[in-house]
């Protein structure tokens, strides 16, 4: 059975491990450029496919039968080939509805839906079903029934914001479809994007203590419905939350912060071996980008220049998955660094007594014990602010690793 996903760009997709965990077929990612789309759909070289951006509406004229749900929505995301005839439905509806109902009650709420593509139509249909009070449609093209994003800012009464666009999706992880400062009455944020695991929009909601959910549960839920549609077998929805949690945990990075020479790199390498993660040392990546050592960067250009390179490297590394990231001691000095690293990562602080830290060497800001003590006093509040777990590293590395594993098992997951 030839099954897979079509779309223009699929490097961000998590669909393959989800389908292969739930079904007994191989799931193929099949990126199709726009100039090849017509040929692909006419040749029908598949038994079943999921459809993603930008083809959810474009694919409809090629389908022989479209169920009422998909017709009403005006978008298709699942097609099966039965003796050359294409049968289509929309399982995004099932996934989005399930995800929203698991986390929020939208009854009588004023909801703003951002986007004008196929997923926005799905969100509109779901919100109608959930009996919201009012739906505001928002898009860059402000022709009715849509309003522009500038006009949307004036709707201070909006209580729920749903992003159905690709804004914030990897690789453009620092982007957000709206600024939540413009919506003082917002009580919930829903983002269909699932890569990164937490979007910048949801990161902003988290900072404001606004409940939020990203699209991973929707992805798993729609996959379950798609598999049932493809195979005519019942998969059941009981394991959706469990599978979403497993994927979240597997894709999440472990980000180590702490004072210079506290042991982040040593511990990170050992953890990578133990857990089967990739490992990256941010300082080494900075040196590669600058094509010189960190002491040379400081000497030639100064700390501000170094911090600029560090921020660029942070954003690039933050796009990775299943990676242990050892950060430089001063990474916490810029909030945008921690913003980026938090989108796909769990932040863990490695704490070591200051009198056990290394003085001088390749660390330009660790020139003497007094400087280190002052640095620790300034940075400790930031280490505490950004980390979810603090691990002491004052004894054997093996003891620190054991403590880490215990803390991680207790705090990991969705």
What does this protein structure show overall?
- β16, α15 and β17 (389-392) form a beta-alpha-beta unit.
- The strands form three sheets. A six-stranded mixed β-sheet has the order 2-1-3-5-6-4.
- Helices cover 43% and strands 17% of the residues.
- The chain is built from 16 helices and 17 strands.
- The longest helix is centred in the last third of the chain and has 18 residues, at 369-386.
- The chain has 414 residues and is α/β, with parallel strands linked by helices.
- α4 packs across α5 (118-129) and α8 (216-231) crosses α9 (240-251).
SSE layout and pairings?
Blueprint: E1 3-7, H1 15-22, E2 27-31, H2 34-43, E3 48-51, E4 65-66, H3 68-73, E5 78-82, E6 85-89, H4 92-103, E7 110-114, H5 118-129, E8 134-138, E9 146-147, H6 149-152, E10 160-163, E11 188-191, H7 200-207, E12 212-213, H8 216-231, H9 240-251, E13 253-257, H10 264-275, E14 278-281, H11 282-290, H12 294-301, H13 303-318, E15 323-326, H14 335-344, E16 345-351, H15 369-386, E17 389-392, H16 397-411
Helix pairs in contact: 1-8, 4-5, 4-8, 8-9, 11-13, 12-13, 13-14
């Amino acid at each position: 059975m030839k099954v897979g996903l079509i779309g223009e760009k699929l490097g961000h997709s998590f669909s393959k491990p989800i389908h292969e965990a739930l079904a007994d077929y191989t799931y193929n990612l099949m990126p199709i450029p726009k100039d090849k789309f017509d040929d692909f759909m006419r040749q029908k070289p598949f038994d079943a496919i999921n459809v993603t951006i930008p083809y959810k509406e474009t694919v409809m004229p090629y389908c022989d039968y479209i169920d009422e749900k998909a017709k009403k929505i005006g978008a298709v995301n699942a097609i099966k080939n039965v003796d050359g005839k294409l049968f289509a439905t929309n399982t995004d509806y099932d996934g989005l509805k399930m995800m929203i109902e698991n986390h929020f009650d939208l009854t009588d709420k004023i909801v703003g839906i951002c986007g004008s593509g196929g997923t926005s139509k799905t969100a509109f249909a779901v919100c109608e079903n959930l009996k919201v009070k009012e739906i505001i449609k928002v898009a860059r093209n402000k022709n009715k029934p849509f309003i522009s994003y500038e006009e949307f800012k004036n709707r201070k009464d909006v209580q729920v914001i749903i992003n159905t666009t690709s804004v914030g999706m990897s690789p453009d992880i620092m982007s957000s479809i709206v600024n939540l400062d413009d919506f003082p009455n917002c009580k919930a944020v829903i983002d269909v994007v699932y890569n990164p695991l937490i979007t910048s929009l949801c990161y902003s909601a988290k900072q404001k203590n606004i409940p939020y959910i990203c699209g991973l549960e929707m992805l798993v839920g729609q996959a379950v419905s798609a598999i049932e549609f493809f195979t005519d077998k019942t998969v059941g929805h009981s394991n959706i939350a469990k599978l979403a949690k497993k994927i979240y945990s597997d894709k999440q990075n472990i980000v180590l912060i702490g004072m210079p020479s506290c042991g982040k790199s040593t511990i990170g390498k050992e953890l990578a071996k133990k857990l089967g993660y990739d490992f990256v040392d941010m300082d080494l990546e900075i040196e590669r980008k600058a094509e010189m050592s960190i002491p040379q960067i400081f000497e030639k250009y100064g700390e501000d220049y170094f911090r600029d390179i560090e921020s660029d490297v942070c954003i690039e590394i933050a796009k990775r998955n299943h990676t242990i990231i050892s950060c430089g001691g001063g990474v916490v000095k810029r909030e945008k660094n921690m913003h980026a690293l938090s989108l796909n990562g769990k932040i863990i602080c490695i704490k070591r007594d200051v009198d056990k830290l290394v003085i001088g060497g390749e660390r330009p800001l660790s020139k003497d014990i007094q400087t280190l003590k002052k640095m620790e006093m300034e940075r400790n509040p930031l280490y505490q602010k950004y980390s979810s777990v603090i691990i002491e590293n004052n004894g054997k590395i093996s003891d620190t690793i054991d403590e880490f594993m215990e803390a991680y098992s207790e705090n990991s997951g969705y």
